[in-house]
Design goal:
113 residues, mainly alpha, 5 helices, flat
Length: 113
């Protein structure tokens, strides 16, 4: 994804516009478009069984936009996103040990010793 997005941007000479702040704001806009798809639907079951196909496709497109901007923002900020995710998962495992939080939605500060 990183390589494909970098090539796409280079071919269009868009790097001049793809600074971290601009990428962040563009990503927030795309998140808003994802939210708009869920707006007024109430609770939505996993797998979106009640959604028509055209809405599922639109969701896939908007989620893809979010991911593309996220990956490019990480690149521009020199964040190794795969490594950062692994590190964050390790931190979360420590903050939320399964033995203490199983089945609970409480924040880690509510159950620490």
């Amino acid at each position: 994804i990183r390589r494909l997005q970098a090539q796409f941007t280079d071919e269009r000479d868009w790097n001049q516009y793809h600074q971290p702040r601009n990428l962040l704001l563009a990503m927030v806009g795309e998140v808003g478009e994802v939210a708009e798809l869920f707006q007024w639907k109430g609770e939505v079951a996993e797998g979106l069984p009640d959604w028509p196909e055209h809405e599922r496709k639109q969701l896939a497109q908007e989620l893809s936009d979010v991911l593309i901007y996220l990956v490019e923002l990480a690149e521009k900020c020199h964040v190794d996103l795969p490594r950062a995710v692994l590190e964050k998962m390790d931190i979360n495992r420590q903050k939320y040990p399964a033995s203490k939080v199983h089945g609970s939605a409480k924040k880690y500060t509510e159950y620490q010793d």
